[in-house]
Design a protein that fits this description.
The chain has 19 helices and 33 strands. By secondary structure, it is of the alpha+beta class. Among the domains are: 4-50 and 99-277, putative glycoside hydrolase family protein from bacillus halodurans (Beta-galactosidase, Chain A, domain 5); 58-92 and 360-544, Glycosyltransferase, CATH 1.50.10; 682-763, Immunoglobulin-like, CATH 2.60.40.1180. The strands form seven sheets. A nine-stranded antiparallel β-sheet has the order 1-6-7-8-9-16-13-12-11. Helix 6 crosses helix 18, helix 12 packs across helix 14 (504-524) and helix 13 (447-468) crosses helix 14 (504-524). The longest helix has 22 residues, at 376-397. It is globular.
């Protein structure tokens, strides 16, 4: 059985709608391939096509009213506080513009009147190539499509087995915002326009290179007549990066046209595969060949009907990694709510960077899944946000440091976004994002990155919080006005509230950020007033508390919830992605279980991304069967035929969160130890992974059977004490002095690891 068979999404018919199409991307340029026979549609995206331009938005009355809003909240006058907050804190204008499609590429084929036979449409994750095969009119046709990062182009190759059998007309459109295209020469057309009066100007440029037959432009169509093979090259850009996007797009297309298709394909694969092949995963033994011979949509329907399919889970996990490679590269914009793939001009939630969990979830697989470079696009976005975040801190809160609220976009906007106070008034987005910088350091151990890029942003986010937080009546330092993202509570007087002081998630993020700054500062030799302020504040930050239902309290008061099955489970940030709740805090650990069960008993997990978060939480709670059941539920209830996550509608964070959750079930590295098979479900009693990364500069390969490790290799990029937690005893002949003791039915190993060394372990007694 070839590895490629296990890494393909494939179908027996063209896509009927967008969530059946297959995604391609090179970070900046995205495509959705329908694979239609006579009239192919390819949806196009470019990562900087956002409506509108940058503009100051802070409400001029915000700062003067913050003290009054706090006073009302402390006095229990929630409704008055919420009314004043809506008036005084809502930005002007209230919203910034959405992420928009670039348009569509249409290919209209002549001689395709007969019904197609032998149809197959596939996406090969290993090569990053979509291929379509079919036969019509006695002619066998093949299409190959990929988005090349080296050549910054969508490449569409059409071939047939009959000389001169291809006659096709190609054009681009952007309905309903279609400004038309213009012929550039005898083989090219360009579509240009602008995303609103102050928005970017964009261009998409299409060039045809035929090996035989004729190529000409008619109107704004490129017509290829009587060819046996033709390659279309599509490039795109905006004024966000290029002053003259038409000139830049033409130059890229002409440069790509100088290369053969074989060369373009080789360059693309040589760029893609070194990233994708860093990690492999096999679950539950040898994949069932009968399942692999079924199309992906049929396999998914089989699972949705109650079937099991471990190889589909492996494929889903690798698909998540593929999507991250395709939509987030150094120099590209970060992955938004839909990655890079959006077909609506007014998409759900404007397809923004929603930073009260969604964009963070997009990057959960980056480090553990061996795609650290893909994290870079998020860091670049954060750096673009810094000037705005400093301005928002001064104008809205009259404090120093860096702040962001629950949304941002192309221009790095950090203002309160929208009129819905229960989501918009939440000033913790910048602090949560800063923790991603710390995580990147912890996995890679690059001190230069920590010193030059991570710590300065972490420090600014912490400075904001130190200045912004206030003491409550019990001497605790709390945030506020704030919310527990998008949830509501009921006061003792029966009023519905959402605005509050010191919600649990805020305080857990504060704890994580302050702790990270202290640890980073110690590594970098930080001393002085900032460190002293952190240490003093840490003593006053509220800890998680257990409420009347036995779960972790979401607010400082033990309110009842009108929506006990709410999709956000914000009070468990400290469990995941935070590290404050672990086995070492048994009361909180058990309370976290009760929190999730209560949510689920009232209908929680009903959105794709929420279900994905629950997978990660159960993995952190070391319950593999629970984590597995929710991974299966993600596939059964929240997955489209092309394996895109269904919020509903499509939202890509569920893909990334589900992928990360599967890896978290196999490897965890928080809490000072690398834990192998921490949440292994019964159905994954045997398997193997290669290339998972752990905090501390480690890369691991391992195989298991019967729920026990057979062998393990650990490659160390840094020296230091390494603690391994394993389900069974393992040994390594290369380590002379290794501490070994039993723990919770498994083993704990500790030894001094040397930089540049790979250690090979074998199960004891095997």
């Amino acid at each position: 059985m070839s590895n490629n068979e296990q890494l393909q999404l494939w179908y027996r018919e063209p896509a009927r709608d967008w969530v059946q199409a297959l995604p391609l991307g090179n970070g900046r340029l995205g495509a959705m391939v329908y694979g239609r026979v006579a009239d192919e549609t390819i949806g196009l995206n470019e990562d900087t096509v956002w409506y509108g331009g940058p503009q100051p938005r802070s409400n001029p009355d915000a700062a003067a009213n913050i003290p009054e809003i706090r006073k009302l909240l402390f006095a229990g006058k929630v409704q008055e506080a919420q009314r004043l907050a809506k008036l005084a804190l809502t930005s002007t204008p209230k919203y910034f513009g959405p992420y928009q499609p670039l348009g569509n590429l249409q290919l209209d084929f002549a001689g395709h009147e007969e019904e197609a036979a032998g149809y197959r449409r596939e996406l090969d994750l290993d090569s990053g190539v979509v291929t379509v095969y079919y036969e019509t009119g006695g002619v066998r046709y093949k299409r190959e499509l990929f988005c090349s990062e080296p050549d910054q182009a969508l490449v569409v190759r059409l071939t047939c087995d009959k000389p001169g059998g291809i006659t096709v007309a190609a054009h681009m459109m952007r309905r309903p915002f279609d400004g038309g295209s213009t012929a550039q020469d005898g083989s090219s057309v360009a579509m240009t326009g602008q995303c609103g009066p102050e928005g970017v100007r964009f261009c998409s440029y299409l060039k045809a290179v035929a090996e035989d037959g004729a190529v000409r432009t008619i109107g704004d169509f490129v017509s290829v007549e009587g060819a046996t093979a033709v390659t279309f090259l599509l490039t795109a850009g905006t004024t966000f990066r290029d002053r003259d996007p038409l000139h830049a797009c033409k130059a890229k297309a002409e440069a790509a046209a100088l290369r053969s298709f074989a060369d373009l394909r080789c360059r693309h694969i040589a760029d893609h595969q070194p990233l994708f092949r860093r990690m492999s995963i096999s679950l539950g033994g040898v994949p069932d060949r009968n399942l692999l011979q079924l199309p992906t949509d049929e396999r998914l329907r089989r699972v949705q009907a109650g079937g099991e399919d471990n190889s589909l889970i492996s494929l889903y996990c690798q698909y998540g990694r593929y999507l991250l490679i395709a939509c987030s590269r150094p120099g590209s914009m970060a992955a938004n709510l839909q990655g890079i793939w959006n077909h609506d001009y007014t998409p759900p939630w404007e397809s923004k960077y929603t930073i009260n969990i969604n964009i963070q979830m997009n990057y959960w697989p980056a480090e553990i899944g061996n795609l650290a470079e893909c994290h870079e696009a998020l860091f670049e976005l954060m750096e673009r946000m810094l000037p705005s975040g400093r301005r928002t801190a001064r104008e809205v809160y009259r404090v120093e440091g860096f702040v962001s609220h629950h949304n941002t976009g192309l221009w790095g906007d950090t203002a309160i976004d929208g009129v819905m106070v229960r989501s918009a008034v939440w000033p913790m987005g910048g602090a949560w994002l800063a923790l991603h910088l710390w995580e990147h350091y912890r996995y890679g151990m690059d001190e230069a990155f920590l010193r030059e890029r991570a710590y300065p942003v972490m420090k600014e986010a912490a400075v904001f919080l130190l200045d912004y937080m206030v003491e409550d009546g019990e001497g605790r330092l709390v945030t506020g006005p704030s919310t527990s993202p998008e949830n509501v509570y009921r006061t003792e007087q029966g009023e519905l509230g959402y605005l509050c002081m010191g919600p649990a998630m805020d305080m857990q993020i504060v704890h994580a950020l302050f702790r990270s700054c202290l640890d980073a500062g110690k590594l970098l030799g930080e001393s002085g007033d900032f460190r002293r302020r952190l240490e003093t504040a840490m003593e006053k930050v509220p800890q998680p508390r257990i409420g009347r239902h036995g779960g972790i309290m979401e607010w400082q008061e033990d309110y009842e919830e009108p929506e006990p099955g709410h999709r956000h489970i914000s009070q468990l940030f400290a469990l995941h992605p935070g590290e404050q709740i672990t086995e070492e805090t048994p009361e909180w650990f058990e309370a976290a279980k009760r929190t999730i069960r209560r949510r689920l008993s009232h209908g929680g997990g009903h959105t794709g991304w929420s279900r994905a978060w629950i997978i990660n939480m159960w993995a952190r709670l070391l319950d593999g069967n629970e984590a597995y059941s929710h991974l299966m539920e993600l596939l059964r209830s929240s997955t489209h035929p092309n394996l895109f996550d269904d919020h509903p509608p499509f939202q890509i964070d569920g893909n990334f969160g589900g992928c990360a959750g599967a890896m978290e079930m196999l490897l965890q590295s928080h809490g000072g130890a690398v834990h192998l098979l921490p949440a292994l479900p019964d159905g994954w009693s045997e398997g193997a992974v290669r290339g998972l990364r752990a905090r501390g500069g480690l890369t691991l390969d391992f195989q298991w059977s019967g729920g026990k490790l057979e062998w393990l290799t650990v490659a160390c990029s840094r020296s230091g004490t390494l603690t391994l937690r394993t389900p069974n005893a393992i040994g390594c002949q290369e380590i002379a002095d290794m501490e070994l003791r039993e723990r919770n039915g498994g083993c704990l190993l500790r030894f001094q690891a040397e930089q540049g060394t790979t250690y090979q372990f074998q199960a004891v007694g095997r």
